[in-house]
Amino acid sequence: MIYKFNRINRKIIKEKFLIFHHENQENFFQKESSQIILKDLKPFNDEESNKKFEEFLNLPENERPIFLENLEQELNLSKNKLQEYQTKLQELKLKNKEPKNTHNFFQQLNNTILAQKSFYDTFSKRGCHTFSTKNKPKIDNFINNISKQRENLGNKTILCFEANFYPEKSNSQFLEDLITKGHIDPENKGDIEIALKNGLSVITISKDGYPVVINFTTDLAAITVQETITSVYIPEKKEGKPSVSQIVDLEINAFDREQGIILASFSESKKKSLISKNNDQFSIFSQQNLDSNDKNNLLKTPKEPNVIKEKQNALSRLEKAGLGGTEIFKKLKKIDPEKKIGVILMAPTNYSTYDNWLRPVFDGIHNNLKIKPQMKCEKYLTLKHAKKEEYLAAILASPFVKKIAFVGHGGESMIELANGVLHEDEISSFIAKNADKNWQKLKFITKETCGGVNDTFGNSIAEKISWNKGLLVPFIYAQKGIRQIHSS
Amino acid sequence: MFEKDNLEKYRKKAIYLLKEITKTNEEIIKTKKEIILEQEKLENNQEKNQLNSMEFLLDFMD
């Protein structure tokens, strides 16, 4: 018997044993028990288990209960661990089920940063819907089904109407219909009427919480809207119909339904005027964009008093300006630091502008993303103060950054690039020479509205190195997103 | 006789516990493997999303 067992493949013995053990556990020992069989018939392939079992068999009887207690504890620990892993697995499975492409970085950033000049473009590029004469639905159907339209177009829909969009109805009739159908809060009627009388566009929040833009004129206008604000703010018209240039500085820079905010950037004069007229409304925007964590992050290192003071100043200005960079910062906070996305600011010409306005934001970003000190902005971001080699070396040498978003201030930095502060030839050869496989997925995104500079910069770099080498360095033109910070 | 019964009882328990531990550990290994697969899947998705987003940005900028 012993001989037979020893010659049979262990695996088969184990399987047979387990089946038998499972089916007839109670009777097993009565029928077959003998210490010798048990020794040979080790029920587990697992080496450790076998050892333990042997250990158990060799123990004096009085020590066996303690041994069993330890085993029980071990089992409990294993079970707990298993549960922990199973929970983690479920979480991951859930994450993988989440809809794709809805909340990713660049789209969010795109929602925050706009470089569009036209009001309509602004909205349509951001997933909002503009009805033109080409896709104009019939007025009655449209008014009846406006909620459905929004549903189809998504939560981020803003409805824009062109001037005399429905010539068969006057503006006031159209407005009345929208109010009757509950799409516009009647409380806003008075304001809207004033706006209409003055030939202004209005945005309001309908009862179901969606912003509705009614642009009855061809002029551009945008009003800050927040979910909690139900009234329409209409800039006061002074003399005659305001021109495009007078209103265009109310351009909407960011629209984020997730947070229920539309952020608007204002020119200095317009902002002052808005704040003085409607302080409460404006302060809602400026305050809520910096929570205490943001503040702490922004105020982190360095410790020199003058820098802290500068940062505090910058912070308070940021709070007043309320936005842009902070929003970028917020979005970036959601990125897993392990994903190693770096943000590099193409710094403006004026160092102090950068220092005062932008550094705190980008310090915050970098701190938050746990990018090591050598990747900090000041090391290479100020083009005027950094040698181009250092600048590029800092980017390329960092093992922590696999993807770089060039968040450009706008024209100046690009012009500097074009003017040779960083010459594109040098950039190309440097990157081509130094880029390693970490950069395979980087690529230049070009074609930007940089006052013509983009053609020089973007095309040549793209042609010379990016596409051929498969490098992808997204360049995000953030002129308006950033500009608003230091324009106030 | 009583001692023998006791002995058998302990043996049975030891076998049962070791079997359970082995089973649980196998489950842990299996779950870990699944976690790794899911993580890879997630990373791939994120990667894909980012690439799509860049395409999106390109479109946007065009």
If you had to describe this structure to a student in words, what would you say it looks like?
The complex is a heterodimer of chains A (488) and B (62). Chain A has helices at residues 2-7, 10-23, 25-32, 35-40, 47-58, 64-97, 105-112, 119-125, 139-144, 146-153, 171-180, 189-197, 244-247, 268-277, 279-288, 292-299, 305-321, 325-333, 351-368, 377-380, 388-397, 411-418, 424-434, 453-469, 479-487; strands at 129-130, 159-160, 202-205, 211-214, 252-256, 261-264, 341-346, 403-408, 475-477. By secondary structure, chain A is mostly helical. In chain A, β3 (202-205) and β4 (211-214) form a beta hairpin. Chain A starts with a helix and ends with a helix. Chain B has one domain (1-62). Chain B is built from 1 helix and no strands. At the A-B interface, α3, α5, α6 and α7 of A face α1 of B.
Layout of helices and strands, plus pairs?
The complex is a heterodimer of chains A (488) and B (62).
Chain A: H1 2-7, H2 10-23, H3 25-32, H4 35-40, H5 47-58, H6 64-97, H7 105-112, H8 119-125, E1 129-130, H9 139-144, H10 146-153, E2 159-160, H11 171-180, H12 189-197, E3 202-205, E4 211-214, H13 244-247, E5 252-256, E6 261-264, H14 268-277, H15 279-288, H16 292-299, H17 305-321, H18 325-333, E7 341-346, H19 351-368, H20 377-380, H21 388-397, E8 403-408, H22 411-418, H23 424-434, H24 453-469, E9 475-477, H25 479-487
Parallel strand pairs in A: 1-2, 7-8, 8-9
Antiparallel strand pairs in A: 3-4, 5-6
Chain B: H1 2-61
